[in-house]
Amino acid sequence: MVKNIKWLLFASLSIVACNDDDTTVADEPVTAGSANFAKYVALGDSFAAGFSDGALFKKGQLNSYPEILAGQFKQVGGGAFASPLCGDDNIGGLLFMGTPIQSSRNVILGLNPDKTPNIGPLPVAPVNEVTAHLTGSFNNMGVPGAKSYHLAFAGYGNTAGVPSGAANPYFARFSSAASTSILADALTQQPTFFSLWIGGNDVLSYATSGGIGVDQTGNMNPATYGGNDITDPTVFANVYNGLATQLVTGGRKGVVANLPYVSTLPFFTTVPTNPIPARPAAEAAQLNQLFGAINSITTAMSLPKRFSTISVDDNNTTTVEAANPLLIVDETLTDLSAQITAALTPSFGPTTAAYLGNLYGRARHARNTVGNRDYILLTTRGLITPPNNIQPGAPAPFNARGVTYPLQDAQVLTADEASKIKVATDTYNVAIKTAADANGLAFVDAKTVMERLVNGGIRFGNYHMSASFVTGGVFSLDGIHPGARGYAMIANEFMKAINAKYGSTFKEVDLGQYQIQYPASL
Fold it and tell me: So what CATH class is 7-85+138-156+167-269+416-513?
């Protein structure tokens, strides 16, 4: 858990990071190499759009990695770069015919009792009206929420489909026509260079919903998919190859990026699987007796044990007891409701035993072992933090979320669900790399970059950047999207790939010139 908010001091500073090598490189002329950057368009999802802190807002859009790249491209003849900017005084959020359909951006509202930041939407109503259509063409075609197959979907910006239909409210604001697609609007501009980073949302909504969706592997018809489903890998490969083929028509050059595992984002890694303090002796004894009885049932059925031994608080302030894992539901488990009810009836009576049988039939303690890890969603933190951890309608003492009341499917990404995401992501990345090689495109290994952020971090001059929530310097307050400095780091990775492929000599931007987090007042 974060013990302080030192990052607030850094968010307002601009420190130049340089060394002797930087000075030498700065003297070299910036050249385009074999690429033509006169007309640049960016295709993608929320990352391309500059989404941060759970919303899209003007300051975030202007700090998107395509905007930063376009600024560098101007040194070699790159033209104007237009983004469909929000006119909201950096509030964020969306309205549809006056009704909010997406809240304003997240900010730090204060500190919680445990000194962690209290994060929530800016207490100002959104003002960006979807039906207030923007005119003109836009180079930044990043659309929050877009999946791979949405880029070529005609009618994705049809206001008639907002907010509950197939259309996207962000694209509806700036699409050239109700019947057009993101790809069509991009190609109409006749770009000379493009960037394409897409595919994260093909698994992300499944992950952030705690696996409330379907792994559609084997289903080749995206029209039948739900919003939280995992895209079939073959569908993804076909769609991605089609996008690449159309984008390189006429010899056009570009840069593409693969996908990190979404489960490595702070949204999934910030809340530990064992945040429950040691329990009072009487409570621990009761829970160990209850959970031990269920473990005996699984042992008799030759099934793995489901529960750990609850640690006891010895009331000694000089000792530190082991924390306890969260109690969760795992729908892949054999339902032992009947067996638990039968075993507990002599001790609890038939009514209470039946309740506990239903409550714990598919329950277990969360795990954090290599290759078998569960992920507690960032949004679940508030649900398990006393005094807000009591489940309404559940009888005491079986109403403490994560302790005696299991966290439900939507609040946890289980190891089995994370495995499905990993398998899909691996196959998507094969398709992306294959398309990059086949079409002579620059390639950004974003998966490896994320692995470096998770395992030790990345240093830039005086700055150490990691995947830690709030303080790591990369991710914003939603735990999924980068902040300004994170997007600048991404832009640097794109420029490295462009330099390597096309012989250009773009310099890295100074990350010290970009904020770690956006303050409440901009």
Answer: alpha beta
Provide the CA 103 distance to its chain's centre, in angstroms.
17
Reported pTM: 0.92
pLDDT of residue 25: 42
Residues in CB range of 129: below 8 A, 6 or more apart? 94, 95, 96, 97, 98
CA-wise closest residue to 502 among 333, 252, 330: 252
Ranges of the chain whose pLDDT falls below 70: 1-27
Question: Could you give phi then psi for residue 459, rounded to 5 degrees?
Answer: -105, 135
Do 150 and 185 contact (CB within 8 A), yes or no? no
Nearest to 145, CA basis, from 125, 163, 122: 163
User: What is the pLDDT, as a whole number, of residue 27?
Assistant: 65
Which is nearest to 381 in space by CA: 402, 357, 351, 352? 402
Per-domain residue ranges for the chain?
7-85+138-156+167-269+416-513, 281-324+327-365+375-413
pLDDT digits (tens, 9 = 90+) for 450-463: 999 999 999 998 89
3-class SS of residue 517: coil
For residue 56, what pLDDT is reported?
Answer: 97
DSSP bridge partners of 401: 405
Q: Yes or no: say if 280 and 313 are a contact pair by the CB < 8 Å rule.
A: yes
List of residues 6+ apart from 97 with CB closer than 8 A = 129, 130, 131
CA distance 181 to 172: 10
Do residues 456 and 157 touch, judged by C-beta distance below 8 A? no
Which secondary-structure segment (H or E) carries 340? Answer: helix 337-348
Q: Identify the CA nearest to 146 among candidates 131, 135, 156.
A: 156
- Looking at beta carbons, which pairs linking 293-297 to residues 24 or more positions away fall under 8 Å? 293/340, 293/343, 293/344, 294/336, 294/340, 294/343, 294/360, 296/343, 297/336, 297/339, 297/340, 297/343
Neighbours of 376 (CB within 10 A): 29
Determine the Cα–Cα distance for residues 431 and 239; give it in Å rounded to an integer: 10
Type of residue numbered 172: A
Alpha helices in 374-442 (DSSP H): 381-384, 415-438
What is the rounded CA–CA span in Å between residue 129 and residue 28? 46
What does the angle CA 270 – CA 417 – CA 219 come to, to the nearest 5 degrees? 135
